């Protein structure tokens, strides 16, 4: 949701960018001594969170980054996509991956002194699952037994607690799932699975405004639409103890404004440089520019419910995919900041493999033309690609279209929709005319998240009405695996199978593009595109 | 006079109802569901969507929503935001003082510098001063405002470092100086041009020749006779401009990260926060209506031939 811009803004910033390079990029001397100040405050270009600061009610970027500073969950993952333990001592499934036993590390406390116990988790989840409490992330508990009693599809909660959650002792609880999920531990990384202190459940409004968590930072103040300040918490028990004194989340309404401040060391880092600066940010920041892998993928997906694609021969889709010159477009439109995709799963997650899409994701105009011909051609010999015009999609859509037309003679036009809200509405209502652009950022770093959750028959994320029995059978098999590793392997097979049904045409993997000021060092982003703020070190002034 | 004002105030009521109804309907016609949009590109939770819809009264028929909204408005209740469930009055209370400051400063620039340039150019018509002013105003009017904004931000903020590139505290007058100048530039140019033409015209008027013949001092002729009579078109422009400056500063506020009405309105539009949009517009309509009333009353002050009965 972050970084919505109009085309106008892009144009503007282009003008400035030209000016900036002409002037030699500022070259301000950094006034720091080179020594690190452990009490230094990091400022981060953020925006106003959408909702109150409750973990189970936060899903957009501005709130998420604050919640992550204030709370620590049971588990997290490392760069290879392996589970790491945080507040949990261990999270172990039974042999069917149906009953999960969570043991907590002892001695953890909330910022207000209350002990973090099994009850802090179970009560928080039960509270958040109740629709009356209006928590946006509540559907994350849907795998747990008894969820439907607390959160029926319609109407009020029938019960106050999910029967699948049981407190065993002070530091142990069990989660019973409706069906075994071998990779369930990954889901526990997400914010709705964070604990809450008991007082927060009694007065959620107050604690939403001034949250009390168990994380590395303690809440200090929230000046709406201006800034949120948190300070390092000295009693923190986790591994990721802050290496700075606190964070100032500054609210910006436009990323171009944040970028201007970043250039003058007025803010220390930002989530993503504005699209208009992609060509220049490496020049502007030199060795302070940041480019990191980010587990997200861009695709264009046919609307399989339309007449055009209903009974299409897969060869046509394979042909269209081979007609797209991904590398050249990445170089020209994205200035080399994206990488051509070779499959349907984003890089940096468990189970990612190279070339899952095989030859069909490699540019080959001759083969493309032949394949489309062999498949009987594109009905109407014309396609359109729907995109939202409030974000910078136009340039690459045009480039993809040109590439397709040039290689195969199939006519291709962009189909812009005013903004993202309007775009999703059309997709939800299944009114896309031909093909739509799509993007997916990981929910959890596991290949299944990019497969079953997007292309399974009838799942919520499957917007194109795609359905393939073979694929469904393979994912079902992967979900029954005994271990995460085995499940990831089986999912790889399911991904390979998509070659023969082509639910979407993979285009590129995203990258996090950012930079940091002269005041700080050690700025890194994780594969979900979030900054690792506790590691940032601030120089003495 | 009193009856005239009363009549004008009464006229405001239908205008007020008309505009709010129009905006309310227009927002509802926009594609995209604000409640659904809370989930971004992730699948929404139907139970939660229904809950939020019910809570914010969005499940009622449109006419009921409007009546409900207007009923609340009369009691000073602007409703709550769809995202975050915050009182809209709080958002308006935060944004308007900021925009008010920015607008008044920009307006002062327009008034002082604009009229000064206009008088200078009008009195010394076709001389170097006049040509310079004409050229400068032409430049300002023809170049889009964001170019000036970004250019000045780059020069004073990033290169010279005299100010921070963006405004750090939106309620600080000193920090608002640069954005206010950018915001007022175009208006300033219009005011200079309007007053120049008007002054140049009135300089040929009979009463001017009389004043000169009487042997009045020059500054007295210009300020008391010439300026006063030439200001009517300028006052008309300045009066309506105060509303534009408050609500229409989207670009300037965006460049300098000022948390004013323009930004609030822009975000609300993007998020389809209908109640926020109507709330802001309601206040802006009031500002416009009052400003135009003041302008009309000022006519009588400036030109004694105009009388309101």
UniProtKB/TrEMBL annotation, chain A:
Span of the secretion signal?
A: 1-22
Question: What GO molecular function annotations does the UniProt record carry, in alphabetical order?
Answer: peptide transmembrane transporter activity
Q: Name one GO cellular component term.
A: ATP-binding cassette (ABC) transporter complex
GO BP, sorted A to Z: peptide transport
Q: Which domain of life is it from?
A: Bacteria
Q: Where is the Solute-binding protein family domain?
A: 86-459
Recite the UniProt keywords alphabetically: Signal
Q: What is this protein called?
A: ABC transporter substrate-binding protein
From TrEMBL, chain B:
Q: Which segment of the chain is annotated as a signal peptide?
A: none
Q: Where is the ABC transmembrane type-1 domain?
A: 96-299
Gene3D superfamilies, per the entry: MetI-like
Q: Which residues cross the membrane?
A: 12-30, 104-123, 135-156, 176-194, 234-256, 276-302
Q: Which GO biological-process labels does this protein carry?
A: transmembrane transport
Entry GO CC? plasma membrane
Q: Where in the cell is it found?
A: Cell membrane
Q: Specify the protein's topology with respect to the membrane.
A: Multi-pass membrane protein
The record's listing under InterPro entries reads: BPD_transp_1_N, MetI-like, MetI-like_sf
Q: Identify the keywords attached in UniProt to this record, alphabetized.
A: Cell membrane, Membrane, Transmembrane, Transmembrane helix, Transport
Q: CDD domains this protein is in?
A: TM_PBP2
Family, per entry? Belongs to the binding-protein-dependent transport system permease family.
Recorded protein name is ABC transporter permease
The species is Streptomyces alfalfae
Taxonomically, what lineage is the organism? Bacteria, Bacillati, Actinomycetota, Actinomycetes, Kitasatosporales
């Amino acid at each position: 949701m972050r970084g919505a811009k109009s085309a106008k803004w892009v144009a503007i910033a282009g003008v400035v960018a030209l000016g900036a390079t002409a002037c030699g990029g500022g070259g301000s001397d950094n006034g720091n001594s080179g020594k690190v100040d452990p009490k230094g405050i990091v400022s981060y270009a953020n925006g106003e969170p959408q909702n109150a600061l409750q973990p189970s009610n936060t899903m957009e970027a501005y709130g998420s980054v604050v919640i992550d500073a204030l709370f620590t969950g049971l588990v997290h993952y490392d760069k290879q996509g392996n589970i790491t333990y945080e507040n949990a001592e261990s999270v172990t499934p039974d042999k069917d991956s149906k009953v999960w036993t969570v043991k907590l590390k002892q001695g953890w406390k909330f910022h207000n002194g209350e002990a973090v116990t099994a009850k802090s988790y179970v009560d928080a989840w039960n509270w958040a699952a109740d629709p009356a409490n209006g928590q946006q992330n509540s559907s994350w508990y849907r795998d747990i037994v008894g969820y439907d009693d607390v959160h029926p599809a319609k109407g009020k909660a029938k019960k106050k607690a999910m029967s699948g959650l049981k407190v065993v002792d002070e530091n142990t609880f069990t989660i019973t799932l409706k069906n075994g999920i071998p990779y369930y531990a990954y889901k526990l990384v997400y914010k709705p699975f964070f604990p809450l202190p008991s007082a927060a459940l009694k007065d959620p409004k107050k604690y939403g405004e001034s949250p009390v968590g168990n994380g590395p930072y303690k809440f200090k103040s929230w000046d709406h639409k201006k800034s949120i300040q948190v300070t390092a918490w000295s009693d923190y028990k986790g591994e990721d103890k802050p290496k700075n004194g606190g964070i100032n989340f500054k609210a910006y309404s436009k990323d171009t404004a944040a970028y201007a401040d970043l250039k003058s060391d007025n803010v220390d880092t930002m989530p993503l440089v504005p699209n208009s600066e992609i060509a220049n940010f490496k020049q502007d920041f030199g060795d302070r520019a940041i480019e990191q892998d980010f587990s997200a993928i861009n695709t264009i997906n046919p609307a399989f419910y339309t007449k055009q694609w209903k009974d299409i021969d897969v060869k046509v889709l394979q042909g269209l995919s081979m007609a797209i010159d991904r590398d050249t477009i990445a170089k020209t439109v994205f200035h080399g900041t994206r990488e051509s995709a070779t499959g349907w799963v984003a890089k940096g997650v468990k189970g990612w493999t190279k070339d899952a899409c095989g030859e069909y994701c490699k540019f080959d105009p001759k083969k493309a033309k032949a394949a489309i011909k062999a498949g009987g051609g594109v009905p109407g010999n014309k396609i359109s690609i729907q995109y939202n015009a409030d974000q910078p999609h136009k340039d690459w859509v045009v480039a993809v279209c040109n590439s397709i037309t040039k290689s195969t003679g199939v006519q291709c036009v962009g189909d812009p929709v005013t903004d993202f809200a309007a775009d999703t509405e059309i997709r939800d209502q299944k009114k896309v005319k031909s093909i739509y652009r799509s993007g997916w950022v990981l929910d959890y770093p596991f290949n299944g998240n990019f497969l079953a959750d997007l292309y399974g028959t009838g799942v919520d994320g499957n917007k194109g009405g795609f359905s393939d029995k073979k694929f469904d059978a393979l994912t079902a098999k992967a979900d029954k695996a005994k271990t995460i590793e085995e499940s990831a392997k089986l999912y790889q097979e399911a991904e390979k199978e998509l070659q023969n049904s082509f639910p979407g045409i993979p285009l590129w993997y995203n990258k996090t593009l950012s930079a940091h000021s002269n005041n700080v060092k050690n700025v890194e982003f994780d594969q979900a595109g979030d900054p690792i703020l506790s590691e940032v070190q601030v120089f003495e002034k | 006079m009193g009856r005239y004002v009363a009549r004008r105030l009464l006229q405001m009521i239908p205008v007020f109802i008309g505009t709010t109804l129009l905006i309310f309907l227009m927002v509802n016609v926009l594609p995209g569901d604000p409640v659904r949009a809370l989930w971004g590109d992730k699948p929404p939770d139907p139970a939660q969507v229904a809950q939020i819809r019910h809570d914010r009264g969005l499940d009622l028929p449109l006419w009921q929503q409007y009546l409900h909204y207007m009923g609340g408005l009369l009691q000073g209740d602007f409703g709550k935001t769809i995202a975050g469930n915050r009182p809209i009055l709080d958002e308006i209370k935060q944004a308007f003082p900021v925009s008010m400051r920015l607008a008044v400063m920009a307006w002062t620039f327009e008034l002082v510098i604009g009229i000064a340039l206009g008088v200078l150019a009008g009195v010394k018509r076709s001389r170097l001063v006049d040509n310079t002013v004409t050229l400068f105003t032409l430049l300002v009017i023809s170049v889009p405002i964001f170019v000036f904004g970004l250019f000045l931000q780059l020069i004073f903020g990033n290169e010279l470092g005299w100010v921070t590139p963006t405004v750090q505290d939106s309620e600080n007058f000193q920090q608002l100086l640069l954005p206010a100048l950018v915001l007022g530039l175009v208006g300033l140019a219009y005011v200079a041009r309007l007053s120049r033409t008007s002054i140049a015209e009135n300089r040929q008027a009979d009463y001017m020749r009389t004043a000169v013949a009487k042997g009045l001092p020059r500054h007295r002729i210009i300020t008391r006779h010439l300026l006063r009579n030439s200001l009517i078109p300028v006052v008309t422009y300045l009066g309506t401009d105060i509303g534009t400056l408050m609500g229409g500063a989207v670009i300037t506020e965006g460049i300098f990260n000022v948390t004013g009405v323009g930004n609030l309105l822009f975000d609300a539009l993007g998020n389809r926060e209908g109640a926020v949009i109507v709330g802001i517009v309601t206040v802006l309509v009031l500002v416009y209506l009052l400003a135009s009333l003041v302008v009309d009353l000022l006519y009588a002050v400036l030109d004694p031939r105009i009388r309101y009965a």
